[in-house]
Write a structure and sequence with these properties.
Largest sheet: 6 strands, mixed
Strand content: 15-25%
Number of strands: 6
Structural class: alpha/beta
Helix content: 25-40%
Distance between the termini: 74 Å
Radius of gyration: 19 Å
Strand order of the largest sheet: 3-2-1-4-6-5
C-alpha cells in the first residue's frame, strides 16, 4: 500500500556575520548590494544567517541596520573610546611600522571582541567582515572545507606577494576557531610581553 516514510527535515546550519569597522562606502546602496548579491543571499540558501554589527554613529545608520536586519547592533562614539596606555607603548605590536597604527589596531580588535561576547555555541560558522570589503565573486558552495581552519584571504588587491600580509577585512571559520580569532585582543598582552 501507500506507506509514507517520515523524513526528518535537515536543520540548516547557523552562521553569524560579524560586521565591524567604519561604515565608509557601505553607506552607499551599491556597496550593500555587492554584499547581498555575492555573499549574504547565496549563504541564506543553505544556512540560517544572523548579522551582528559594531560601528560608530553615522548619518545612514538606520538605513544600514534596516537593510542588514541586524540581530545585534552596537553603536559607539569614537571619541568616547580610550586606547589603554600599555597598548600605545607596546612597540612589538607594530614591528617597525609607524606607531600611529596602534590605536587603530586596538579599536579594530576591540570591536571584534565586543561582538563576540554575544555569540553562543549554536552557531556553526562565524564570518568577520569589515564594511569596506568587496566581494569579487559570488559565493557558491558550502563551508564544509572549514572543518578545522580559518580562511583569511592572502591580500586585498590581488597581489600574490605573501609579504603583503593577510587581509584584515574578512575571516571565516567554524565556531571554535573563530572564537579564538575574536578573542585576539585579550591575548595580546600575554603574547607580546
Amino acid at each position: 500500500g501507500n506507506i509514507k516514510k517520515n523524513k526528518k527535515k535537515r536543520k540548516k546550519m547557523k552562521i553569524d556575520l560579524l560586521y565591524t569597522g567604519d561604515i565608509r562606502s557601505f553607506s552607499e546602496k551599491d556597496a550593500r548590494k555587492n554584499h547581498f548579491e555575492k555573499f549574504i543571499n547565496p549563504l541564506k540558501k543553505n544556512y540560517e544567517v544572523d548579522i551582528f554589527m559594531h560601528t560608530y554613529f553615522h548619518d545612514n545608520i538606520t538605513e544600514i541596520t534596516n537593510d542588514l536586519d541586524c540581530k545585534i547592533c552596537i553603536l559607539e562614539k569614537r571619541d568616547d573610546i580610550i586606547v589603554p596606555k600599555d597598548w600605545l607603548e607596546c612597540r612589538s605590536l607594530v614591528n617597525g611600522e609607524d606607531k600611529a597604527i596602534v590605536p587603530r589596531l586596538f579599536l579594530q580588535l576591540r570591536k571584534i571582541k565586543l561582538l563576540s561576547n554575544f555569540i553562543d555555541k549554536s552557531y556553526d560558522y562565524l564570518v568577520r567582515i569589515r564594511f569596506d570589503f568587496v566581494f569579487g565573486k559570488k559565493f557558491k558552495g558550502n563551508l564544509n572545507f572549514l572543518l578545522d581552519k580559518i580562511f583569511i584571504p592572502l591580500n586585498m588587491y590581488g597581489n600574490p606577494d605573501p609579504r603583503n600580509g593577510l587581509v584584515d577585512t574578512f575571516a571565516i571559520g567554524n565556531y571554535n576557531n573563530m572564537k579564538h580569532y575574536c578573542n585576539f585582543l585579550l591575548r595580546t598582552y600575554r603574547d607580546w610581553e
